Amino acid sequence: MTVETVKWGIFGPGTISKKFATDLKFAAGAELLAVGGRNSDKAEAFAKAFNIPRAYGSIEELADDPDVQVVYIGTLHPVHKDNALILLRAGKGVLCEKPFTMNENEAAEMIQVAKENNAFLMEAMWTRFLPPIVKVREWLADERIGEVRMLKADFGFNIGWQPESRLLDPAKGGGALLDAGIYPVSFASMIFGGQPKSIQSVASIGKTGVDEQFSLLFEYEGGRSAVLNSAVQLGMVNDAYIYGTKGHIHIPNFLFGKSAALHVSGQDPEHFNDGREMQGYNFEAEAVMEAIRAGKLESDVMPQAETQAIMGTLDAIRAQWGLRYEADRNA
Q1: Three-class DSSP category at 263
Q2: The pairing of beta strand 93-97 with beta strand 70-73
Q3: pLDDT tens for residues 228-260?
Q4: Residues 6+ apart with CB under 8 A from 267
């Protein structure tokens, strides 16, 4: 059975977009038609590297292409909103890299503009669409570990002391929370089906003014909890553990999710292994295309209301640290 082709564009010919473009060829029915960037030379080089027919030197040109149906945004965090609004107002679908925006107000604006223009919009939380994470949701839905009571999830890496890096630059939305910590925070939202009723946190604000590491304790109704840690100056074991009344689930290196293990009390462990060769960005692309073909404007797995709520949680965490970005001042 053939599937209807969906024609893609990419805006932001950087590292993350290269990963997305590499995996998009594994997504059935995807055609990568165009790429755009602020620098036409970089866009043309990206187009040549990935055999993309059309290259544009601005987002306006990409938005004006009548054949492009949906655009992946892989630019720096602070310009996600402005990039997305141009595309949405042109009627293009948008898959926007995380963090969706800099704060909840920006997220709400993007979602409203998408609705006004009848355009598809989704946060590119690619981890949710990986086969082992899909399997974990199935185990949880079937209550294989009973009632979920606790989550522990970490994601951190050490970039070394690079003050010029975007990860340590507040003007570029740097810091552990928005770049790395959003993964365990979003994972907790997926596991518990909502945001915490209370948050305790501690962060280390570095010399450049961004959070270099942090720890979070989320409390949910019924005494459930999540312990989350993240860093950009510490190499961490990036595993997730979900604990329930009948057992637990272990997801090694959960962000990239190539395996998961189900441990039910009194039973042999059950393992799910994903032998994929690609990184896995194709799965979120396939979900986007499935929604577009069905005439949907958002994803059931990564719905817009949840994305906005997660941004609100990140805002609340940063408020505890007194950490503000330019986008907060403009709100």
Answers
A1: strand
A2: parallel
A3: 999 999 999 999 999 999 999 999 999 999 999
A4: 247
C-alpha closest to that of 153 among 193, 201, 186: 186
* CA–CA gap between residue 237 and residue 216 (Å, rounded): 16
Q: How many CB atoms lie within 10 A of CB 73?
A: 23
Of 225, 216, 221, 260, nearest in space to 244 by CA:
225
Residue type, 156: G
Pairing of strands 225-231, 211-219: antiparallel
- Separation of alpha carbons 111 and 116, rounded Å: 9
Please give the average per-residue pLDDT across 288-305, as a whole number.
98
CA 157 to chain CA centroid, nearest Å:
17
Q: Indicate the pTM of the whole model.
A: 0.96
pLDDT in the model for residue 329: 83
**Among 34, 77, 75, residue whose Cα is nearest residue 56:** 34
Phi and psi (nearest 5°) for 290?
-60, -40
Bridge partners, residue 283, by sequence: none
* pLDDT tens column, 26-83: 999 999 999 999 999 999 999 999 999 999 999 999 999 999 999 999 999 999 999 9
Per-residue pLDDT averaged across 278-306, rounded? 98
Strands (E), the chain: 6-11, 30-36, 54-56, 70-73, 93-97, 121-124, 148-156, 198-205, 211-219, 225-231, 240-244, 247-251, 259-264, 270-273
